[in-house]
Model the fold of this input.
Amino acid sequence: MKQDNMELQKVLNEIEKQTDYLFVYDKYVNVNRKVSINSNKRPLKEVLGELFEGTNVKYSLDGNYIVLSSTESKNNERNEKISLTAQQEKKITGTVKDEKGEPVIGANVVVKGTTSGTVTDINGNFSLLIIGTNVILEISFVGYVTQDVSIGTKTKLNILLAENSKVLDEVVVTSFGIRKTMKQLTYSTQELKGDEMTKTGNPNVLSNLQGKIAGVSVSLNSGMLGKGPDIKIRGSRSLTGDNRPLYVVDGMPISGGDRTADLNPNDIETINILKGPAASALYGLRASNGVVIITTKSGSGTKGKPTIELTSNYSFEKIGMLPDTQMEFAQGNNGVFNANAIYAWGPRISTMSTYINQLGEMEEPGVYDNDKDFFQTGSTWNSNLTFSNNSDIGHYLFGIGRSDQTGIVPNTSMERTNFKFNGTFKLIKNLSSSLSINYSEVNIHDLPELAGNQNIFRGLMETPPSYNLKGKPYAKADDPYAQIFYRATQNNPYWIVNNCFRKNKTKRTFGNIYLKYDFNAFLSLNYRIGIDHYDTSGNQFLELGMGDVGRTNPPSGGSYTISNNASDIINSNAYLSFNKTINNDWSIDFIVGNELYDSRSKSLTSVGSNLIQGNWPNLGNATDITSSNYEYKQRIVGFYANANIGWKNKLFLNGSGRNDIVSNMPSKNRSFFYPSLGLSGIVTELIPITKKLLSYGKVRTTIAEVGQAGSMYVNSRGFVKTNPGGYTFPYLGLTSWTQSSTRISPNLKPQNTKSIEIGTDLRFFNNRVGIDYTYYINNSDGQIFEVPVPITTGASTEISNGGQLKSYGHEIMLNLIPIQTHNFKWEFNTNFNTYSNKVKKLYGSTERITIGASDVISVVAEKGQTFPSFYGSAYLRDPESGEIIYESNPNKQDYGKPLKAPQNKVIGTPKPDFEISFINSFSYKDFSLSFQLDWKRGGQIFSQSYIEGIRRGAAGITRDREELTIPDGKKGTVVDGILQVVGDNDTQIKKDMSFYSNVYSVQETGLQDASYLRLREVNFSYNIPQKILSKTFIKNASIFVTGRNLFLITDSYVDPEVNMSEGSFQSTNSQGVEISQIPQSRSYGFGINVKF
Amino acid sequence: MKKTILYLFLIYFCFSCTDGIMDKIDTNPNQVTEAPLKTLLPKVQTSLIMNILGGGTPRCIYYVSEQNGYVNGTNILDSPKDIGGSLWQSAYLDLNDLLIIKKNAIQSEAWTYVGIADLLSAINYMILCDNFGDIPYSEAFKSDISNPKFDSAESIYSKIDETIDEAISYFAKPISTIEPKNDDMFYAGDKQLWIKSAYALKARLYNRLANKDPQRYANKALDAIQKSFTSSSEDMIFTKFINSTQNSNPLSAYQLVQPLSSMGSGIYKTMIYFSNQNNVEDDPRTAIWFTRVNGQIIPAPNGTEKPDFGEPRLDGAIYSKPAILKIRTAPMSVLTHTELKFIEAESRLRLGQNEVAYNVYLDAVREALKQASNFNSSVKLSDSAIETYMNLQNVSPGYDKFSSTHLVYQKYIYHYQCQPYEAYNDIRQWDMVPITNPKGRINRLPYPDIELSRNSNAPTDINDYTVFDNNTKLFWAK
Done:
């Protein structure tokens, strides 16, 4: 070192860099003094001597410290000592730097064992008043190893924090339960801690994922209990097939979908989402839609004494958003009251006098909020008890969980009981094992989602406000099955909840045994075998007198349905694993293995209908009984290999390949191979960049291919039983079979998704700011689906390859720590997700295929359009301006009203423009507050409730029915099939019963903007201080209050997050259709968490 | 030990995924590869009744022919393209099963099955042609042709005639070892009745072609009638319904769920035509076929009907509703002796045999009145009520004043009992029953979306607008 005229401070820094010594000095040492020095190959003592020659500063060596002291400081120290003895207080100053000599901003400096402390400023400096000399300062910061410094008599500290490689190399669970560091990964993955799942006490695992993972879309179905949501990772890859991810619990693939309801969020240690095909490559074709890897708690964190943990929370639920319905106009038609009318187009209720109601009684006019009145306060009570221990041979956790819910809909409930055991044991030398067993029992007591007049809850939104739904009896006094309702075809919701039920009970056991035999330090044989078995028994009772056919005199109809579903999955996975580091520069891990996945399921359904008498839910009560059973079988055998090569912990290359052999493919195309390749580099290691700004930077890219098989059974087109037009066989000793209308292409090949992913993980300002960005392109070609073929060919569909679905998207995770002081911390996380999902090709000349459809709307895949799209009737629009055309010809029936386009077309899509969530966490001392805001923009929901609401004059928009208006648009007419636009619309009309009975048949009318901003959850908790607990046997305790769905801002008529998920819209691909679903509830709760 | 474990694993890997095992796993237990004739015949027969003659399409054809009104608050002719889908789909899927029946029956020399399959195919094709015009025929049901071309309705008509001849020839074959029994839900395997039905269909077919060559087809029709039903007891009619939500008359079943049908203006106008005092009640069928609204018979104005599916549902708050469609056990007619009587009268008229025509017409009307209570045995018309009606001036105008209007109107009224296709056909063949829908009369049904979006050969010039134009009239229509 050769320096001229340089600040002493810098020289000292340079010495610190070149040697193992650190300087300790106080404010009385003038470090701003300019010095010149040439230290080239001279001993340190000599250099120091020269530096302080002729000053009042002396130096002394103390271990690795060089203590500088000035006479001035000695004098002052003496003075301070005097004052300290009086005040017991002294001021400590210091600087916190990292290994590169950069100041660490915002580091915590705390007097150990107390709450007093401070944080470092922008230059890494701090000052602190301490009492006594026996003080230890604890210096900590995210991403660094926490350091304790004993003060002694020192007043000035120079602290060097070492980077915590563990933090940057956070370990995540990847395929097959293999743990890897984040640094190593070449693909995007996002982890969620178990405690995030239990924050607001929602007992459904998937609901708790909402907004927390970029790229994961959670779509809720209905506010009815037991209706779990569906999730999709990075949009859809399959047009008609399954787009739901694979679920893996403790290394074993399990039944997902609806059956995620069996999982207890409290059992979860972490959830890791493998988003792209590269991440999930080892799982093969089952994982083409991503993987949700769940690791359950295993007691590994606790040491020594056994730990008992008890958590319990209670919340109550209120109905959330209800549609805006008018409360001014009575039952009737065209302004005239009619007690039997099905519309609310009657007179103003305020102008009415006493009238005769449909029961023949005198009734005073009144206004009733029938929708709101119906719902009750629901409740959720979750309790969990775990017992865990960690001993020499291993660690384990045993847990019991219980969740009890009552719904906002009367007489609905859900109960779940979970037992779990998870442990890891080292049985003999070289052989380690783990065992994971889960048992659950779930009882759901709800009601089915039915279409048309059978629908159970449409009466809530459609009943005219003058009709006292709650106050009137719902059945005749002398016949409990003769419903009383303003509309004799539909159901009185009160009668329904008191007479009908659906009960589903699921018992499920799943688990696995894992054995690992270490041949030596770097080679091991791993084997995991697991089972997943569940049985669901269901009973559905629709009472005599139900719906559109039973409302006869005397009541008729009704049905009782018994169903049983059983599913078994066996999964066996064996692999050799090789793991070695060579020359400290190269790390290599390699696995090769085989997996067998065998899935069987059975269902049996018996429906007894046309009941003889009421209140006897039994097949013996039915006059017609039909039964059917189905069986599904599938086997997938996969051979795979994966290699990771790392260079100096800076560059990583990952390659994998898997060959699957799948039963449900024609024998010649049964076996298929797909590879993936990934590369990542730690930029901050490879290129010397100042770490002041960018503390960590990683770029990564992958290219991967994954296959997907089609439907079950592709080896023949056979005959099936059929009931033509509802004519039910067996009848008169006959049955009726038909050739299956689905043909199978003999050239069927597996579908293939190619994907490219690039991404970067950047952390700035000592990790105070973190951005993880991913861009991906998925191209799914050779889609297997039931290609609709012209029925004139003798089949309606053919299972074939056809069609291409292309998607690309951006995912951003932003983590900020805007404020961090000793006592206060604000963390801000954002997950942003946007994607495009387009149908590029369909089979042959097929223009569109239907994903889900009923009388009300079709959800389709159409060439060139976003997947999925709504397809239906639209308004006739001016080709130039795109505005709606209103009939201009006064002689035409529709004069002044909007015209309907001659052809149906794609009218919208449920796919949003983007989804973003904002998660804020604040902590102050022992208090913490967090809340999550979800914002979704764009996309539509088709609301049948809106369509019915406007038609019936029940929707709020019909309030202006008495005013003359000129609707915005063009006017024109159709002459000989050709549209003639005349000009701007100037025809005055009333938006009355006749207007809405015209527009209701245009399906486009039902589309609502599904954008929303929702306060998804709030959690406020208080950790009881150790000071209080130390005198008890309790280790940790906290209490918390929570809120969920506290507000919702949307333009949609109904809660934009509900979806019809039964009947014609059962497919999870047909999202975005609302047919009188129960809205999401709003919940308020509190709870405790105690560890013994 | 280590080696043994490895070997065990290897053996297990190699045998878990052989083609044999995988094929076995992929064998679908939910279906069967062969279907006996006795399972397929009930399917095509009940499907004919439930889906073809009784599904969504004929329900809408009732509105198109204005026998019924669509009281949903919208005009059914706003979207004609939505009408034909259910017929199209059901008819072609049934034709596929009929081909299988024919193939299997020929193999096992079960000739009666072959004949029935031919005849039911002929019925299906004729309904398709009459409603849609040109349809896939020669290239249909070929798995290697993914876009079957559309053949002209006229050419298919001649093929249908041939198919009926073929059916008759199979029925004429001696009794074989496999004969239909109760799985033939129309005639329990009675070959003679099947032959008569085949000739009844021939009579209908020739009669339909009459505008092309009145003389020739009149003679052919008369010839066929000779060999057909001798009384109503031989009718091809489906009666196996019960008073339950399942296995009941499909048109009634729908009305009982969603009562969107009211009395149409067409049936009202034709019935009142025969009254001396413009009183629709002069027709004794009025009382048993329709409900009253405040004691009145009120038809719905087709195309401008107000919504009337609320309370009282089945009787109507604004318009009279069909009492016929309240009865779940009402039989469904396919081919009847009464229809043949009307065809005979038509043919005689065409041949200029007015007096014979008139007398046959009177027989037909009298028989129609006797059949008027078929849907509900508890409302039989008394002989005196029938005679009172027969004596009305306009019903029996004398052969000199007798015109095709009398004949066509009476036939139209007769077909009110669950035969809307035939009413719609006559409307187009004669252009006599006035259509009142402001949108006009549709000449045929636009091809449904399911074919248009899948078959590149489907004609696109037949659409919601053009079906009203003159150039879309069927080849046999006026």
Confidence is low (pLDDT under 50) at residues 80-87 of chain A.
